[in-house]
Amino acid sequence: MDYVIVLERTFLFYILITVLYRFMGKREVGQLGIVDLIVSILIAELAAMSIDNRKESIFLSILPIVSLVLIQIGMAYYSLKNAKVRDAFDGIPSVIIKKGIINFKEMVKQRYNIDDLLTQLREQHIRSIEEVDYAILETSGNLSVFKKSGDLSEEYPMPLILDGEIQKDTLTEIGKNEKWLEKILKEQKIQIEEIFYAFYRRKELFIIKHKEIEK
User: Within the chain, what is the greatest distance between any pair of CA atoms?
Assistant: First the structure.
């Protein structure tokens, strides 16, 4: 009888967790953020406890599992609207190589060593650091690499505004200030709140408004 109960609970949780993960959205394991990873671990633990403890009602595990999924969905939706919340939970990408120069200070900050860098470069079929113009360590742990090229069209786009929030570090990096940015926006008669994403590339500012992505 116990074997039947275990099998029934295993099958039920398999179906339940599959359905709930569909609601949470499609993301690869390597792309999971901190919140996604924590929720995944807790769901696995709760399911395992319920399967092992056959005397307790199965709903004592289903309730917290569903609650965790609802919390995760709520946080994901809220983080779409609030860049500060998104950065707090997911972190922000780190520039590891800039214009062919390794940023050792940022590597120490991220506890990311040279072996990690070389390994991820090899995974992208890059033999030497000298081939790299920019390398950005994403919040998922993946390394985005931009190779050196004589073609200026392949310059890395520098994000200046995200969801109406000015990226001050990027302004400093390109040698500009907020007054310079405000002047350009004023000339184009654009309010910063209207901007979904703005980036700087080839000495030009490119702007994508909220209304343009909502069409």
Answer: 76
φ, ψ for residue 95, nearest 5 deg: -80, 110
Cα distances from 141 to residues 24, 94, 111, 126, in angstroms, run 20, 10, 12, 18
CA neighbours within 13 Å on the CB side: how many for 64?
Answer: 15
Q: Which residues is 135 bridged to in the sheet?
A: 97, 145
Contacts of 199 (CB under 8 A, 6+ apart): 157, 158, 159, 160, 205, 206
Q: What is the pLDDT of residues 117-135, one digit of tens each?
A: 989 999 998 888 888 888 9
What does the pLDDT average to over 85-94?
74
Rounded CA gap, 91 and 34, in Å? 9
Q: What secondary structure letter does DSSP report for 156? A: P
Task: Give which of 90, 172, 211 is closest to 139, Cα–Cα.
Answer: 90
Q: Partners of 144 in the beta sheet?
A: 136
User: Dihedral through CA 82, CA 88, CA 91, CA 94, nearest 10?
Assistant: 90
| Burial label, 96 (beta-carbon count in 10 A; 0-12, 13-18, 19+) | buried
pLDDT reported for residue 34: 66
Query: Which pTM was predicted?
Result: 0.53
| Nearest alpha carbon to residue 97 among 151, 149, 145, 160 | 145
